[in-house]
Amino acid sequence: MNKYKTRNVKVAVGIDMGGTKIKLGLIREGAIIAQSSLAASSHINLIARLAEIADKVDEMLAENNAEPTGIGIAFPGIIDSTRYKVLSKYVKYPDSQGVNFSRWAIERWNIPVALENDAKAALIGEWQFGNGRGSNNLLLITLGTGVGSAVMIDGRLLSGRNFTAGNLGGHMTINVHGKVCNCGNIGCVETEGSTWALADQVKNAPDYTDSSLSKESNIDFKHLFTHAANGDRLAQQVQDKCLKTWSLGIINLIHAFDPDRVVIGGGIMESHHILLPYIHWMITRHSWVKDNPPELVAAAHPQTAGMLGMYHLLIQGKKTLTSIL
After folding, report:
1. Does the domain spanning 9-121+304-317 belong to CATH 3.30.420.40?
2. pLDDT per position as a tens digit, 35-84
3. What InterPro entries does UniProt report for this protein, alphabetically (predicted)?
């Protein structure tokens, strides 16, 4: 018996496996009709986490009288989107390489799955439903727990032999004398300007104890920007370093891919009034395209672009239950 036979709302399920939160949405005709979230707990076994995610999805489906037609997962890692496999062994969800997402979706709901890198999914979401509309040459940057990137050229999402093309903007070397990143590279954009690296940068500064930041139990970019605006010297120095790091990383990507438009998303974009003018100034001062720079915009859907992108990939792919098992 089909347990959904009395339900009349057909939806796609979107899941964004973030570094801090797992976001879940029910999507119908390009609109998110219901949302929820779980703590990421990305250090633990993913198979066990998927069971909790499935229970939450079932709860949302029941509350909205909905039947699932497909499930799209935006994942923080290098993804083989043709075989729905995680390729990278990284600090988040360490057992993810062995997870068969297609089998999970079919055994739980008898529906097809789509799997893509979270930054690539966000780019697709902004391209179709947000501030990427009208441009087929796009660069998307996400600034938050880490630094992600994705690139579209002539309407085609870059992939590459190892599925890394355009995807490692956060792992370009920006400081040859920098620390070894958790990816193994030296002086990455992430090691110089991301949430996971911020607290160490601040606490290891010589004048940390004299800074108002020392009174914060949790040092994040919201606190950093607030203390900088209030005149704290260390906060201003670290803020300037991060702004310069992000700007130079974006300039490197502009030089590599020559986009029409750069869309910037992620939690840090709550301070877009500071970031966008600074990055634009750096591009017009230091890039090769200073006389014809790309348009620079904030993401329209910083919290939901990944889920919307996975919805589009499900619809576009017309995926069936013959998905790889």
Report:
1. yes
2. 999 988 767 788 888 999 999 999 999 999 999 999 999 998 899 988 98
3. ATPase_NBD (IPR043129), ROK (IPR000600)
